[in-house]
Design a protein that fits this description.
Elements: H1 2-34, E1 45-46, E2 52-55, H2 58-70, E3 75-80, H3 87-101, H4 103-108, E4 109-118, E5 123-131, H5 135-139, E6 142-143, H6 146-159, E7 163-169, H7 175-188, E8 198-204, E9 211-219, H8 224-236
Parallel strand pairs: 2-3, 6-7
Antiparallel strand pairs: 1-2, 3-5, 4-5, 7-9, 8-9
Helix pairs in contact: 2-3, 6-7
Length: 252
């Protein structure tokens, strides 16, 4: 009887030991799973205490280059780390994306020159960016909605302002819509606006893009002072004269 009791105790002890081992294994595997390094997103990082941007793929390289343009940086360095892709091809692709597919790049960047150095396990790219506009000029770009743009156009016409640079996000705006609005507003206020200006619209990257920078010019054949004097003359004229004094568009 004593021997049977010993056997039972042994089996219970063995079972407890097995459960403990399984439990510890479960904890171990859980710890091992949760201790894995987090997934590295497709972005760039700046190496501490340096201005070097570290990238791992095309998206990181593109974003690093775009961040330099956004900050109007004219010199910088990109370094690869476990890079996935062809560094030379990806930089050329990112460069074209910035220059031809982003509003600020298309508007402000003249050209970009890379100095690519290949080391044993990584690449380093020394970048020089040449701009067509100063930081001050870029800071003057207004961000407008379509409704705000129409109000701004009306104000410009009433004050004979000639230049407007703005950024807008819309697929509905067209150059013909801008011309039509300016023309109709002028014709609706002949006593205030003596003539329809010539309208010049330049869009970066293009009008078909969602986000774009538009440079709008309203060109008059007279100076601002002369235009205001013409308005005053209309105000002093007889009531039946202003409507016949409106000059048509002098579009080239």
């Amino acid at each position: 009887m004593a021997s049977n009791t010993s056997i039972v105790k042994f089996r219970v002890a063995a079972s407890a030991l097995a459960l403990a081992l399984l439990s510890s294994c479960s904890v171990w595997f859980n710890r091992e799973y949760y201790s894995e390094e987090p997934y590295v997103a497709d972005y760039y990082v700046t190496i501490p205490e340096t201005d070097i941007q570290e990238v791992r793929n095309y998206i990181g390289m593109r974003d690093a280059l775009e961040s330099m343009v956004s900050a109007h940086v004219d010199r910088g360095t990109i370094r690869t780390n476990n890079y996935s892709g062809n560094v030379v091809d990806d930089f050329a692709r990112a460069q074209n994306h910035i220059k031809y597919e982003t509003p600020l790049g298309a508007f402000a960047v003249d050209y970009i020159t890379p100095g690519i150095k290949e080391y044993l396990t990584y690449y380093e790219i020394d970048i020089r960016i040449y701009y067509t506009h100063t930081p001050g000029e870029i800071a003057q770009i207004k961000s407008l909605t379509t409704a705000e743009l129409l109000d701004e156009l009306d104000r410009m016409l009433l004050e004979f302002d000639s230049d407007l640079t703005f950024e807008i996000a819309t697929l509905k705006l067209t150059e013909s819509a801008i011309v039509s609005h300016v023309t109709e507003f002028c014709k609706s206020h002949p006593d205030l606006i003596p003539m329809v200006p010539t309208i010049v619209v330049n869009t970066y990257p293009g009008m078909a893009d969602l986000r774009k920078i538009i440079v709008l010019e309203l060109r008059y054949p007279y100076t601002r002072d002369v235009l205001f004097a013409m308005r005053m003359n209309f105000a002093w004229a007889r009531p039946d004269e202003p409507s016949s004094s409106f000059e048509g568009s002098e579009q080239p």
